[in-house]
Amino acid sequence: MKSIFKSRLVLSCATLVLLAGGLAGLWTGIISASAASSTVTHISTNTSTIQRLGTVNLTMIVQTNAGIHKAATTGPAGHRRATPLGLLHPNVHTAQNVTLAAAPAAAAFSQFGSNVSGAQGFDGITAAINSAANSPSICIPTPTQCGNGDVSPPDQGLAVGPGPNPNPTVIAEFVNQTLNFYAPNGKTLLGAIAAFQLFGLPANAFLSDPRAYWDPQTGHWFFTMFTFTLGDEFQYIAVGQTANPFSTYTVFAIPTDDSSNTAGGCPCFGDFDQIGSDHSGIYIATNQFSVTGPNFNGSVIYAMSKSGLISAANGGPMPTIVTYTVPYAGDSFAAYHLSPSTVTQGSSSPNTEYFVESDANLNSNSALHVYALLGTQVLNTGGTPPLVKTSVGTESYTSPPNALQKNGPTPLGSSLGLGVAPLQTDFDAVQEVTYANGLLYAELSTAFAYGTGQNAGAAWFVLQPKTWSSSISVTNIANGYVETTQNLLYPVIGVNAAGKGYMAFAVSGINRYPSAAYVSFNGTKGAGSTVFTAASGVWPLDDFTCYPPYGPACRYGDYSMAQAYNGKIYMATEYTAPQPRDYFSNWATRVWSAPQK
Predict the structure, then answer these.
(1) How far apart are CA 546 and CA 554, in angstroms?
(2) Distance between CA atoms of 172 and 180, rounded to whole angstroms?
(3) pLDDT digits (tens, 9 = 90+) for 384-425
(4) Structure pTM?
């Protein structure tokens, strides 16, 4: 069935028109430059300890797993765990749709198009594969301690790089709670590895927010996750000792409990960890929440030398971990989701790390914060780069409504006497940021006016930062929207050094099952108007999180991922595939690539 889609470009300027009833605004014209930047003086800067836990060899893990019988759950006795979603406004998604002030207005929609010539893809990890990889049988000799069988949602991690012959291109897909490696044609290159095995942890460790990263400069692979149970508040990093993705990794742990912060309700955990990298450093940015209470304290950035971390993975001295705590009360936005940038393959790589933050503590806004760590080469000698920030005016954005699904068979829901549930779209927070030769490409989910209500769409931004010894300015080069008659979930931009590539997302609506889709992206010209379908969903999401005690809306993969590699953009997101389901869920993932145009 055809659907109708629209991509709308809005260039920014110096004239802000306030919309009635809200803070959001429309910018028309050519350029909007930021105000003068300032050093972030209210933060606390410290050094954190880092522990070397040991090493794991992925090939040996898979060989060991091959001798253990595993099966997905077949009935209601199976284990279920829903990863929590740290939101500043926990009631935003209690209803199917949310009335929000000043949602951007929709324009005319364009037609749905055929797929990109040369695109190829495959179904990745599914709920059934994930459940089997984390089933009690894998926990031998103490299966009762394994509680991770069914985990939702499948937060998406994706990394692409070279492998040993005969695998010139290796795709690592890492979701809650399983890692696998594939060739571009979908051939499995290693085998499913449970997340707890990757980090050498007990089988009942509850990990969340998987991130995968291949570094174009060093050729090394990195995987990160965090734990958030009381007494087990750590950020874990697995660092490849060599460029071989299938070989030995050294596992490190950074404590995130911040137990001395009693005023903040700590011990705390670092939710929604995001990974970034520039020429010299690796960066992990987290949202700090109390383990036992509702406290949100702000964001914590962990900065470390890239070469130092790789050296430590091979037995060298431990690197210094510099921490920056940006408190909630001290940030005019919320100090929430300071999303770090990653340098795309082939781009110049600065000794500056950028972070982009939207105003996710409000229902709407028309500006972004941009932070920068300056002179990060000092991380290599134990120094502390200064953190500066500024704001820049943008198009308006608002918290998105939940997404509808097309009616269809829901065996789990039907067994509970319930129908098709909507999908959580989460929040209007910047998720991933790509740095490409002096420009930052960022995106977020937003509501837009549609009919008498709202749909969820995507907003994109192309920002040009400029830094000095102790300050930063940012120009909003271009921004715009991708709007459809359906709902878009979790957009991500993947571009090459020239800024060319794609924006990927999931799409769902009253006439569409959850599907994987994307639009072209062309530098400062932004998103194209034709939406391509990478893979069409075949039924509604029928997941245990859709229903009480978790519902009333289904948890959905909290982000999509995209990466440029050797002339292609590789993308991944959640959808409902024609694959065997698990008793408690039918979620699946789609991994695909398309040539850079």
Answers:
(1) 4
(2) 6
(3) 999 999 999 999 999 999 999 999 999 999 999 999 999 999
(4) 0.92
